[in-house]
Amino acid sequence: MNTKTYFDSFQSCISSEDGDGVKVLLSTAAAHAKDLTSKISQINPKKLEADTHRLIESPWDELVLQYFKVLLAINKNNYYEAYREHYNMIIIFFRLASNLSRWILPVLYMICWETRELADKADDYLIDNDEDPKCLEEAARNINKGFSTCITDRSPLSTSRKWGVYYMAGFAFKTYFKVKKSNLCTNILRSIKVQDLPSLGQYPKPHQVTFLYYHGRLLFLEAAYQQAEEKFVAAFRRCPRYENTNKELILRYLIPVWLIRGVLPSRELLERYPATNELYGPFINAIKNGNVKKFEEALLQKEKILVSYETFLTVELAREISIRSLFKKVYILNDRVSRIPLEKFHKALKFVGLNVEMAEVIWFVAEMIRKGFIRGYLSYQKMFLVLSEINPFPPIGVNHPSAIIE
Amino acid sequence: MIRGNTNKPSPKINPLSPKSDSSTQNPSEKQSENREWPESLKDYVQRSFNAAPHNIDAIENELKKIIATKLAEGALYQTDWTKVELPKSCSAINEKDIKRKIFKSYSRSPDRSLIENDREFQKREKRAKRFQTDKNAKSWGSPSAENDPMINDLDYTIVGTCQKLEKSYLRLTSAPDPSTVRPKRILKKTLEFLKEKWVKDQNYTYICDQFKSLRQDLTVQRIQDEFTVRVYETHARIALEKGDLGEYNQCQTQLKELYRLNIPGHVMEFMAYRLLYFLYTRNRSDINSLIAELTDEMKRDNSIKHALEVRSTLATANYHKFFELFLKAPNMGAYLMDHFIERERIAALVVLCKAFRPNLDLEFVRSELAFNDLEECKEFLNTHNAAPFINPDNTLKTKDAYRYIEASGKKFEKVDIKGQI
């Protein structure tokens, strides 16, 4: 593509408010980019500047010039410079965008996406040269600004940039998680809460799913498991079947939240999602069989990978559920008599390979009573567990509304 | 679909049925799904990932090829996966990739020990030196930790000439006069002098003041070596002994930086303190990050093993073990645990009062919750308004006591982080 064609196309796109058209023309990865780059690298820079000012209306001309600078930097294979030029480009763009309506959204998404890509490559460059990678962190701040651009638009809803809010929020979350600054996400959540927005369900499904997923992860990090579960279930339901990776990602966090409530995924679900099955299968089986020792072995084996996913601490909490399963077995094998000597539990644990002291057994049972997993009380004098006549082992979470999932 | 813990067998799914997830998958591919794999293969896969967790993507790609080949040969089950060599990606030390992966983990202190060869070590040393001579660097550690602002103005490193052992701390507002700064030779004597003084007088205000000026002299002269580490470690331990978490945190922050520059010290001991501290603040992501930082070698160290066990006993509400660990905490660990021992005692009492009926022997409470004697135990119950429910035979009316103990427990929800960075 030569410059004349470029300028013509650009002008026509902005006059017709063609967001997708502008998006392509300002993208550094589009089909025309390589060819255009080679053309502009052969033009005298002063002439290029003059032509741009002449043929592109203000204030878009500044934006286009900056775009050229990015292309040229990429051409030199200097991604750090490219990122810096793109940073300048994004600043100009935000200024522009604050006066434009909904049609500009595709361009906003693309620019934020590309600034992230370039920041990533720029960080590689910095690391290779023994510097600290700080571009992505900086890019995250710009992406946050992109979100602000959307949420602060007061124009009438049909043409408002507010329709970009959830995409940008999700994208910002994703970036903040990548740079391990997930604590900065709360500001975005707060803004969303106070602003007057269309309901989440009115936004495109992909926006919803990404947003719900990351919101769930934030809640998960704060150990607000019930709320996290709601988000993950909603995200899972709205995520289409063919997006297997995304489904598995959601499950990666949903399963631990279920496990600590004692909710086990069905065999169908596990068969459909092999990565999840591989990761959490051993735990699920250990809980089903009340085999505490196998649960601990699985914890040891999967520790590294669970820690990298930040789900280790949560899965560990589910160990108690496996102990409960075991204790329930003891109750059943004991003919469901309501008075059980604690020694029997001690033996049961030993039987599955867990050698603990009697005192620890007392605490296990006591904790389960406190949590409501067992209904009854402990008699210190007799060292007995006295179970309630009705429902001594209440089923945990089976009939929970979110228990049915496609 | 998910169900609860029912015993109904679910209908088997035919892997070759058209009802599969991705319509693009053909039946033979479906068979390569995890479900159909032999145990030894699953184990092989697991071992491959464990061998190089930083290189998961490359390993995954290689594994896919390996498995696809075997599948095509019809040898998935026939192969002895215990004998197959791990994928090359497990051992390939692609320096650039490793370095990128490590630094892009965006952890506050990337684990430089993963970078193996000499050249990297030299580059690292170069960086450390750069921090020392860079006049724009506030200080080698977090800027806010050391309160001295004068480093910016120095474009040469001063050497002190002061010969006095003791010196009170004065916050500097400009470049210091060398005659008031003690050279390293003197500072070494000061440290020994202060250690003796601490044992003798136990005057914390004096000691803290002296240590701060000692640290200041080191900072001003840009001395960053084993001696510096020893100073911070000593001050940290003394601060712990007196329960001064603010001062302890300042030292811990500096030590983290110094260890990161590979200056030798009691790294394990202080790593263990970090973990115990995070248990006190109950900051889950900090705990998770710290666990992620631990190498296998570190996990074998006694102090770290102890801290890890404390963590897991708390996570599983195994109070019996928890209080046992409190009693045998290594180094200064017990002083750190002191800060959350009351909170955990209440949590443990909540469990006991909920579970036991009608009465519970106080002797059990005493021994489980690590009270020195029955008096201390009763005193504790009194502090939390449960004294009226102690029976003459030294048992506790658990149902009545529960309400008050639970109320006390609610007060421990929020934790003051006391200057932690």
The gist of it:
The complex is a heterodimer of chains A (406) and B (421). Chain A is mainly alpha-helical and 406 residues long. Classes of the chains: A mainly alpha (406), B mainly alpha (421).
Write the layout of secondary structure elements.
The complex is a heterodimer of chains A (406) and B (421).
Chain A: H1 3-15, H2 19-25, H3 33-41, H4 45-55, H5 60-75, H6 79-97, H7 105-128, H8 135-151, H9 165-178, H10 185-194, H11 205-221, H12 225-238, H13 244-259, E1 264-265, H14 267-272, H15 274-289, H16 292-309, H17 312-317, H18 319-333, E2 339-341, H19 342-351, H20 358-371, E3 376-379, E4 384-387
Chain B: E1 2-3, H1 27-31, H2 39-51, H3 56-72, H4 95-103, H5 118-133, H6 184-201, H7 204-220, H8 226-241, H9 245-260, H10 267-281, H11 284-293, H12 296-300, H13 302-315, H14 319-327, H15 333-355, E2 359-361, H16 362-368, H17 374-383, E3 395-397, H18 398-410
Antiparallel strand pairs in B: 2-3
Descriptive notes:
The complex is a heterodimer of chains A (406) and B (421). With 406 residues, chain A is mainly alpha-helical. Chain A has a domain at 3-191. Chain A has helices spanning 3-15, 19-25, 33-41, 45-55, 60-75, 79-97, 105-128, 135-151, 165-178, 185-194, 205-221, 225-238, 244-259, 267-272, 274-289, 292-309, 312-317, 319-333, 342-351, 358-371, and strands at residues 264-265, 339-341, 376-379, 384-387. Chain A has a 3-stranded antiparallel β-sheet. In chain A, helix 2 (19-25) packs parallel to helix 7 (105-128), helix 5 runs antiparallel to helix 6 (79-97) and helix 9 packs antiparallel against helix 10. The radius of gyration of chain A is 29 Å and the shape is elongated. In chain A, 43% of the residues are buried. Among the domains of chain B are: 22-91, no CATH class; 95-130, no CATH class. The two termini of chain B are 45 Å apart. Chain B has a two-stranded antiparallel ribbon. Chain B is 55% helix and 2% strand. In chain B, helix 8 (226-241) runs antiparallel to helix 9, helix 10 (267-281) runs antiparallel to helix 11 (284-293) and helix 10 runs parallel beside helix 15. Chain B has helices at residues 27-31, 39-51, 56-72, 95-103, 118-133, 184-201, 204-220, 226-241, 245-260, 267-281, 284-293, 296-300, 302-315, 319-327, 333-355, 362-368, 374-383, 398-410; strands spanning 2-3, 359-361, 395-397. By secondary structure, chain B is mainly alpha-helical. Chain B: Residues 17-29 have a biased composition (Polar residues). Chain B: Residues 1-41, 120-146 are annotated as: Disordered. Chain B: It holds the Pfam family SAC3_GANP. Chain B: This is Nuclear export factor. Chain B: InterPro entries: PCI_dom, SAC3/GANP/THP3, SAC3/GANP/THP3_conserved.
